[in-house]
Amino acid sequence: MALGWTVWLIGANIFLGGFIFLPFQHKDASKALYSY
Hey, where are the domains in the chain? Predict the structure, then answer.
């Protein structure tokens, strides 16, 4: 189940062009999210 979730996250990340994970790499995640 965990593996399937990881694969889904990777697929979603590729599909959204990194929209999911990139904002959380910043110290101010909320500001990065709302910058879109």
Answer: 2-34
